[in-house]
Each structure stands twice: as C-alpha cells, then as structure tokens.
Amino acid sequence: MKKLKRSARLVEMTQYLLSRPHTVIPLTTFAERYGAAKSSISEDLAIIKEVFEEGGSGELHTLAGAAGGVKWIPKVSRELALAFAERLSTQLAQPDRILPGEYLYMSDLLGQPALMNEAGKIFATAFGNMDIDVVMTVETKGIPLAYATGAQLNLPVVLVRRDHQATEGSAVSINYVSGSHKSLHTMSLSRRAMREHSRVLIVDDFMKAGGTVQGMIDLLAEFNATVAGVGVLVESGSVDSEERLLTDYISLAKLTAVDAKSRHISVKPGNYFDL
Amino acid sequence: MKKLKRSARLVEMTQYLLSRPHTVIPLTTFAERYGAAKSSISEDLAIIKEVFEEGGSGELHTLAGAAGGVKWIPKVSRELALAFAERLSTQLAQPDRILPGEYLYMSDLLGQPALMNEAGKIFATAFGNMDIDVVMTVETKGIPLAYATGAQLNLPVVLVRRDHQATEGSAVSINYVSGSHKSLHTMSLSRRAMREHSRVLIVDDFMKAGGTVQGMIDLLAEFNATVAGVGVLVESGSVDSEERLLTDYISLAKLTAVDAKSRHISVKPGNYFDL
C-alpha cells in the first residue's frame, strides 16, 4: 500500500479495526501496511482510542510487549443499552402483536438486521469478558441474534436443529420439554459442530419457563461442553417461580402481561438492567 | 458533542458512516454533530471517500442540492470477491465433507459470522443498484446469509417457514417440489411479514435444481410481490439443464462433482464470475 497521510491513515485504520472486533492486531501489521513508523501508528491509535472510548462505542485495548498490538472490543454503554431496551419494549407493547394463544408477533422486529446487530452488541458487552468458544442457538428465530453476537465477539455460531438433517452428518439428539406447552420435542446437534469441552454462550429470541434453553444445556453435556452464559432478547415474566427452569440468564426486555381480552401488553427492560 | 479536531472527527465520521450503509446522511447532520462548518465537513468527506474508494471497500456517493448529503455503499471489488470464492471453493473441496447421500457438510463454514458477512457484502455489491424492498430466505441455513445481505443493503429480512408457526399469525402456505428428492414440501409466510407489491431479493445457502427457490417465487405471487434477484452461496452444477427450474440467479461457488467412492469434490467459483 502506498504511503498515506495521517488523515487518510486514520480513516483506513478505523475501518480496519471496526471490521475486526476481538482480534489482536500487532502494531507491525499497521506499520507495514502504511509504511509508517511504529511511533506514528501509536499516535494514530491514541486518537482512535480516545474517539471510540469517549463516544461509548467500545474499548481499544493496547497490549504491550513482544506480542504488542491492539484489540477492538465493541461495547454498548448502559445508557445506550437501556435506550435500546426501552424502544424495544415500546414496540413490543403494540396491541396488534397479540396472536391467538397469547403469542406475540415479533418477526418484524427480528427481521431488522440493524436492530439484531444492536442487541448482539449488547450481548457482546455483557459477555465480552468471559472465556467463550462458541455461540449456540436453536433454530429458528434466535439465529440472527446469535450471529450478531458471534460477529461482535469474533466467535463461531453453532446451530441446534429441531430435526436431524441429512446435511449435518451424524448427530446427537435429545428430548426436551418446552415450558409453554409442557410438550415433548427433539433437538439435535451435529457431532462435527462443536469440539468437546467447549465453553458455550447460549442465545435465543424468547424464553418463557426456559425449557428450550434447558434442552440446549442438556445437549451440551453430551459434548462435555459447559454453559458460559445465557442471553435472551425477551423473557416472559408471567411464569411461576417454581415453573422457571433457569435462573442464571440475562434478558433485554421482559414481558410482564399479555391480555388478549383487553388487548393490553406490558413490557419493561429486562433483568440486564436490574443491577 | 464537543468540538473535535479534524483527526478525531475523521475517526468519528468513518465509524458513523460504516455503521449506516445505504442511508442518506445530510451534511447538516455532521455539521451539527461536530459543531463544524459544512465546508470543513465536505473536506473530511473527500478524504474518507478517497480512502474508501481506493481501498476497494465501497463507494461514498455525494448527493447535491437541498437534500444534499452522502450515502455509503459497501462494495467488494471483483478481485477480492474472486479471492473469497476461491478460498470458499478450496474449503468446500475438503474430502471429509462428503456425507451419506452425497450431501456436503457446510455448517462449519455457514457458522462463521465473518465469512457470512463477506458473502453478504458480495451480494450487496451484485444487487446494490437494484430497487429492492426486502431480502427473503427460507429457514434454516440461508438465514445468516440473508441477514448479512440485508444489513449491508439496509433492508429488512423476511423469513419463510417450513411449517406454519403459532408465533407468525395468519400465513399463506404453498406446496413445492424440492429438486433434490422430487418430494413435496410445504412453506409458509406470515401475512404480516411483507407488503403487497414488494420487490424481493431471494437469498439461500445452496441450490440444486432450484425447487426451493422456485417455491419462494411461487409464494411471492400470493403477495403480488416480484423477484428482484436471486443469490445463492453454492450451486450444484450436477443438474441436467432440463431439470433446472431457474436460470436467472447468481452463485458464488459451483459444485461440479461429488464422488463418494473416490471421496473427490470439485468446486469452482460461481457464475457471478462468469461475466
């Protein structure tokens, strides 16, 4: 690459860093890329770090020593995350979302890539300091959220299927009881999909009693894998405490009431904001 | 926001633009955001434009007049797209991907968010000049690709289900014949998911004879919607031309042979590179 002026280099480096979250980039990579001295690169990075961190979009970690470099850690400030949860809650409370069986129509929201990416960035903030190998979800509606989270954390996504698919090779299947209906279902994961002893972040769009998430946790045991965390976009608060299978999770929004008769829905920010 | 030096402003503006593809941003937004004169903002944008366009990561369009502003159009150069397709082809040709029935295991590749985002950016390059309202896919494996494409084009994603789900409300169902097995399947789309007369970009991970994509096209007719384009990550070239249901699509990789006996797989870059 030809030598760039500082102004152009700042634009290029910003673009380079933003597209590589949670990745260590040695200073020498930049120095060679731009034909610049490491001292100039360090000055550039100080400017970028200040803008990123003051703007609340994340942290630029500097790693000293032989493996010296920088790592971009995208984060969402508590203030912006809460604003997101409040907007989401308002949208979820629209009365025309109520479906027969008191289900809530959410596909229009789940279908917005920018909204999913924002939620994924909040999960990446919540779980970014943990030792995680993969993000896991079960088909179907949690998939965009799992990929958004995986992209921000620079982690692969493992997809649990409802049925055993010919395109997955040999798989491990388990039965689980879904809390909403207390009915028995099957989920399966390809043997090839995950290494043994992986540390797994489970992500889903919606959780009621937690049966589906508990199913994924049971499936992890078959791979000698462990849960590093559980994040759901929306939880239903209308569950008796003795019915709830899971207590250790974070949610971004909490559905506290759905009344089909009065067409009233109550939603508030989730337990992520309780602390 | 406090006044920023030019260097800091360039970093901030770069970050702002990159997170808002295919979105018109008026110059006044930047001028107010940074308390700077429009002439200074224009100079900044000229620097950013040059870096983006020379680096081959996209185009920064300038819109003159009262609605004056800029629009960031992410693009992948033909050279980088071909390099991507060649890497993908090499990975797909690994012999241990062959599954019973001559299916190919692809979930490890589809599980990499960064790889999906790169493919999505290539689709956004291919279809970015077209008039499109939504990106559509059918569950399950094409979902990350559809979201990656939707994110780059700033478009919502519409998800066709294999079964009618309680969480989707009233839906339109159709039957379709899947080319691989000539067997009859059902797919359905929520009535609420898409406006009538939408222009739709169909995205999927794999296409053989095209039965599944043809199913989605048939479903569009029920919504008085039209196909704006079809993009698949991998197509199977081992289809007789009279069996192929669809001819107007782009693919990024083409599977030309899978031989379970010799454990040989041939893959080459897709028809996107034929021009």
From TrEMBL, chains A, B:
One of its GO terms (biological process) is negative regulation of DNA-templated transcription. It holds the Pfam family PuR_N. GO terms for molecular function: DNA binding. SUPFAM superfamilies: PRTase-like (SSF53271), Winged helix' DNA-binding domain (SSF46785). InterPro entries: PRTase-like, PRTase_dom, Pur/Pyrimidine_PRTase, PuR_N, PurR_Bsub, WH-like_DNA-bd_sf, WH_DNA-bd_sf. Keywords: DNA-binding, Transcription, Transcription regulation. Residues 5-74 form the Bacterial purine repressor N-terminal domain. Residues 110-238 form the Phosphoribosyltransferase domain. The keyword DNA-binding applies. PANTHER family: HYPOXANTHINE/GUANINE PHOSPHORIBOSYLTRANSFERASE, PUR OPERON REPRESSOR. Belongs to the purine/pyrimidine phosphoribosyltransferase family. PurR subfamily. This is Transcriptional regulator.
